[in-house]
Amino acid sequence: MKNRMLLFLCTIGLSVNAQVTTLTLKDAITYALQNKAEAKKSKLQIENNEYKIQEIRSLALPQITANGSLTYNPILQTNVLDGAMFGKPGESIQVAFGQEWTSGAGVSLNQAIFDQAVFTGLKAAKTSREFYQINNQLTEEQIIERVANNYYSVFVLRERLTLLDSNYVNTTKVRNIVKGQFDNGLAKKIDLDRINVKMSNIDTDRQQVKNQIDLQENALKFYMGMPIATPISFPKTEFEVTPTALSEAPNAANRTEYLLLKKQEELLGFQKKAIIAEYYPTLSLVAGYNYLGQGPEVPLFAKPADGVYWSDYSAIGLNLRIPIFNGFGTRARVRQADVEIRTLQEDIKDTQLALDLDYINAKTQIENNLITIRNQKENMRLAEDILKNTKNNYLQGLASLTDLLDADNASLEAQNNYTRAILAYKIAEITLIKSKGELKTLINN
């Protein structure tokens, strides 16, 4: 019975593992945004920043602490006093102060009234939240770009394998014809050997492409955060070429990379203001209430009858701190912060140029790839016609085996060039969509 149950569970496991997941590009991207480690960590950064904001806000709230102490004084400190205080003028009397046991408990409060650094931190909190939100958006765009490029790369490799499989089948048919002719003395052995070599080369290419597909699929699953063992397939419609509308160059100031740098510039500005705040005075309210017990034994739970006396005391005040001179340390830190801001501003300018360049290059690649696709499609049609005619001529004895093999190679090469041209177009299309800041449209459509 146990063996049957184990066999049943194993059968279920095999059927589940054998299930193929069909992925559109939208499915692949959506899965990656939900499961890839970078996407999850980016969201955790947003959550963690909220806790940092709470920490900053806490500095503006009252800071309340409780304290307690218990002290044993085995040797009491003594002071020498004038004996006149005790009715013995002219003598010096040594008097011990305090009790052997002292216990205290109290509550203290500290409330910032004016602290420019705290106020600056509160203003920076909103900017830091926006920074991490933009950073999350940039992370998602990077994931989308990687997944899309790898998705199309896998598709092209699968198309190449389909072409090789078809070519292998067609070459096998030719080989059977040549073998029949050889068996009947109508063909030379060298012709049969050549066609066998051709089949062996195709089979080797198929194996290499299969290995490349496995590697590329594993890379795609990794970028998606999908278990590597999951079988996947792709719908044919995902690789159709639809000319992309080429508009005017987009405003680079709307790109996520640019917005992130500008938000970082704001944060550096607040950092500089926080350092400048060290020049400002600080004012805080302090208050405390304490209870003190003293006696010859442990004061806890003891009474005046035991020689232990308790008393309370309280204090309320203001603490004012005015910085005067710290060796120009603050000035040096302010200047360092200013250099950081100016350095980032140069990065912003360079990034803006790079984003403009991305669009121009992507637009040029799109235009060139469309021309290449049209040319390669026509070449593929011509190569197929030539192969068909050459095959008919070979069967009628009007063409040599060399002509047939050359025509077959030319047809396969034309088909491969066509799929490579489509891949180049699709990757350029992703780059163009990215340069326009519209990568999210790949999952919103």
Describe it for me?
- With 445 residues, the chain is an alpha+beta fold.
- The chain has two domains: 22-59 and 115-280 and 326-444, Outer membrane efflux proteins (OEP) (Up-down Bundle), CATH 1.20.1600.10; 63-112 and 282-322.
- It is built from nine helices and eight strands.
- The chain has helices spanning 2-17, 25-35, 37-58, 116-183, 189-224, 256-276, 329-395, 401-435, 441-444; strands spanning 21-22, 63-72, 78-82, 92-96, 101-114, 232-233, 282-295, 309-321.
- The protein has a four-stranded antiparallel sheet.
- Helix 4 runs antiparallel to helix 6 and helix 4 (116-183) runs antiparallel to helix 8 (401-435).
- It starts with a helix and ends with a helix.
- Mean pLDDT is 88; it is low at 1-17.
Which fold name fills CATH's third level, the topology of the largest domain? Answer: Outer membrane efflux proteins (OEP)
In quaternary terms, these chains amount to: single chain
Give the total of beta strands.
8
Strand order of the largest sheet: 2-5-7-8
Termini gap:
53 Å
Please summarize the sheet with the most strands.
4 strands, antiparallel
Instruction: Please identify, by name, the CATH architecture of the largest domain.
Output: Up-down Bundle
Which sequence of SSEs, written as H and E, runs from N to C? HEHHEEEEHHEHEEHHH
